[in-house]
């Protein structure tokens, strides 16, 4: 069997959930599925080769299209025909010309339930393309039970025909060197800090953490606040609140647009507390990365994040500012959180080996 994987997401400097998903899933799957020939397609082949290596059943195809329209309309159908591809795996959107069986992972359709959080152009174009791709898929996957139920509802697809292959945490998150992490942060001239990792946009709700940090007067208590993530949509409320803060407080709020993967792990490990007040997620990777790193985590209980029950009392309603502030204050005042228990639960449920085995089982069943 020949399986084509659209890996063009690795052509960009920034990394998001799709990159984590493909890297984790296929990093495990290529090691267990010896009966499959994998074809990874991207422009920056050297970058993808570093991820998946050089083994007999792994091949690389260099993309030449400079935009997604040409890539989907002509280049992928041409590649599928030229290499005799049996299955092609795309994230969200597949080519309009279907000349092999397609696998779609539709990570979320949050814009259907939260239209106010997405630009009109995004809602119109993605609304058409996502639904068409999902309906035409021979295998349809998503990353959480929440997303599965919303896809079934909005697109009228039988829930039993949508399979869940969740995101997971890379094994190295469970083994970050604490001394190295604290030494790294010290060089950044950052005190003890609260961390939030995710791109900056309205539904990520960074403003709730910024407001809580200010209201709790945490600068006076010796804490800094660190945001890691690029701004992808306007967040005027966040910008206005940040600008209004006293200069002595703003000096202790650090915003990093992008950091390397190795630095990101160090930022996680050295944090006093990780807070994730997102309003809507199809999955929500950062909280489980923080948990795997052994860091106490206050997490939103909304949408897909409600599955993270191992956070127990730290899984909270972030729309209630008093509840969020109380949770933050309690975690900074107490060391009673059993981070080892949380870490173990995450490792058991969200590991790429078992997720890849489940994906492989569904793929083999579809071939029978």
- Order of helix and strand elements from N to C terminus: EHEHEHEEHHEHEHEHEHHEHEHEEHHH
- The portion of residues forming beta strands comes to 15-25%
Mean pLDDT score:
96
Q: Strand count, sense and closure of the main sheet?
A: 7 strands, parallel
Task: Tell me the structural class.
Answer: alpha/beta
Principal-axis shape equals globular
- Helix content range: 40-55%
Strand order of the largest sheet: 3-2-1-4-5-6-7
- Continuous helix count: 15
Uncertain spans, ≥5 residues at pLDDT below 50? none
Report what the structure shows.
This protein has helices at residues 17-32, 45-52, 68-83, 110-113, 120-136, 145-155, 178-187, 206-215, 236-244, 247-250, 261-270, 285-292, 321-333, 339-349, 352-367; strands at 2-6, 37-42, 58-62, 87-91, 101-105, 139-142, 162-164, 192-197, 223-228, 253-256, 273-276, 297-300, 315-316. With 368 residues, it is of the alpha/beta class. Helix 8 runs parallel beside helix 9 (236-244). Strand 2 (37-42), helix 2 and strand 3 (58-62) form a beta-alpha-beta unit.
Which SSEs are present, and which pair or pack?
Layout: E1 2-6, H1 17-32, E2 37-42, H2 45-52, E3 58-62, H3 68-83, E4 87-91, E5 101-105, H4 110-113, H5 120-136, E6 139-142, H6 145-155, E7 162-164, H7 178-187, E8 192-197, H8 206-215, E9 223-228, H9 236-244, H10 247-250, E10 253-256, H11 261-270, E11 273-276, H12 285-292, E12 297-300, E13 315-316, H13 321-333, H14 339-349, H15 352-367
Parallel strand pairs: 1-2, 1-4, 2-3, 4-5, 5-6, 6-7, 8-9, 8-11, 9-10, 11-12, 12-13
Helix pairs in contact: 1-15, 7-11, 8-9, 8-13
